[in-house]
Amino acid sequence: MIKKILIANRGEIAVRILRACRDLDIQTVAVHSTADADAMYVRLADESVCIGPPQPRESYLNVPAVISAACITGADAIHPGFGFLSESATFAHMVEEHNLTFIGPKADHIAMMGDKIMARKTMAQLEIPVVPGSDRAATTLEKALLLAETIGYPLLIKAAGGGGGRGMKVAKSPADFPEAYEMARREASISFGNDRVYLEKYLERPRHIEFQIIADKYGNAIHLGERDCSLQRRHQKIWEEAPSTVISSAFRDEFGKKLASTIAKLGYVGVGTLEFLYENDQLFFIEMNTRIQVEHPITEMITGIDIIREQILVAGGKELSIGQEDISFKGHAIECRINAENPDTFIPSAGTVSNYHCPGGPGIRVDSALYDGCKIPPYYDSLIAKLIVHANDRSQCLARLRRALKEYVIDGVDTLIPLHMKLTDNKNIIDANFDIHFLETLCDNQL
Fold first, then answer.
1. Would you name the residues annotated as active-site residues?
2. What pLDDT, in 10s, does the model give residues 409-425?
3. What domains are defined for the chain?
4. Is the dihedral of CA 249, 254, 255, 260 positive or negative?
């Protein structure tokens, strides 16, 4: 059994992991940069270690510093959260080499799914439908143009070694292709140190649907249903829902079980999210995230399952405490990402929170690390809180969300709260009539 976990992350996800550890009576170690010395998760942890200056590469991405902190504090496991080192196969391997438990899948599985081309091939071999596209890297412009003609326009040029919208460009015609190709390769190289790209058919009006799975080392794997993450801007999710309004319960059951069986065949251990584009009543695999997702709370709300608790237990060698027959889906949940950004320009906003009031009432959950007087540094991702709302149905959920957003006060920095308030009153949102391009178009038209 794991006795002490070092949390190799910051902000709200560090607090979320810390709470799961407390529920399991597991000791915690927080690592932090000098910019986060007074952060909530640092104050709440049993121990803390400063691992460097504010810049991520010198602190949260500093592998020797993170592993050294685990060794000197006697931690026997490391939880990477999301972002930073969470999908680094090299880091996972080094953690195991130091006789520590990596709370995540095997390094080989991280590497397999981190290479988007390999992930596509693997899923296609396991008879999971993939978006039409290339099965190899487009290494030169000439080869890429030939592949593009085979696939057909419009198409996406995507980084093979990364995600999050970086290294992704659209080419609507052969005339657009050369510039888009070079831009995608250059951005992929800067973001991921890998300029390999591949091509995918550009779907016109898809939904972004993802399935949550959990598996243990004994061959047990279950799914926890799907989330709809279609409301995005620049390929970054803003608002997520569970369940999706376009997936029937019969389809969820059949497809979810197929995915769980597929993951079990791979020998995968831990949590994971398989992401799809949905169009014309079909799902097409695009990638798998081998870590906890930002939006995991909405799945917890409709299933009653503590996903991070299960993640820690299976990493420690335990069997899943739940079977597929134990899972039932109740009501509807929505998560709004509260980013420290201007709601009109999306420019990040750093500063000090001068007044903080958290919403409450039935069905309201807030995951954050905020408090009066806390500092929002400019060095990290702008996500500062997540507002999660649950109700018996989607209509009631939206009503509760409107109430919670009106109650939520964060002064001192700009946030996306005003944007979310506008979205709750948008007819297309109310009618669940949107796709992955909807929010981008809406923002371009200034709502």
1. 291
2. 999 999 999 999 999 99
3. 4-86 (3.40.50.20), 132-201 (3.30.1490.20), 207-444 (3.30.470.20)
4. positive
